[in-house]
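sanity check both lines:
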Amino acid sequence: MRHGQTQYNIDKRLTGHTDIPLTEEGKDQGRRAGRVLKHFKIDIAYTSPLSRARMTLVLALNTADSHSNLKNKAGKWDLRERYELIEKDVGDFAGHNHQTCPKFRLQKRGYDIPLPNGESNKDVVERVRKFYEDELKPLMDQGKTVVISCHSVVKRAFHVVMGEVQAERMYELDIGNAQPWVISYTNGVKNGSTYVNPQAFHPKTLPVAPKKRSKPPKFG
């Protein structure tokens, strides 16, 4: 799932690696996501190094209150931070409104074109793919269930890696805050992919698909 709401999200500002905290609504979104996590026996929990992703997962696990196996000896959540899950580096555009910044609007677009002093969408997809192939897939082959708290571009990258959308069209997906995406596997083979409404009491209830933008931008 993506992290909960931040003030930069409200202001439509490009965040990237800037460590912006959750709003009160963002915290509530994280807690509501815990209603979904409660219905799964989670073996391993991953998070981006940024606090908005970590706090969303902590709040969700606190609400679920059913994963004591994920706690360390001190009683804290034992979350595995991975740099591969950090948000896309937006470089010189960090903090700028992506709708009104003149230089951003004139920025040359393309799947493999990096932002000035930042990353391209291809860069993000490649690091997510490597993380999936080297670390996640072997765990799922062992029958492990994992939860990941990350960011909008990273989650889009997972859609590409999972074969859900073409790489060049990843920005057609409108990724909501703290919206759990449940991917199921049997014997290492994907056999299910569902977005789940956090208001539901069971993950098989009220599935919702990610919205598609009517006029998708090349960068979000």
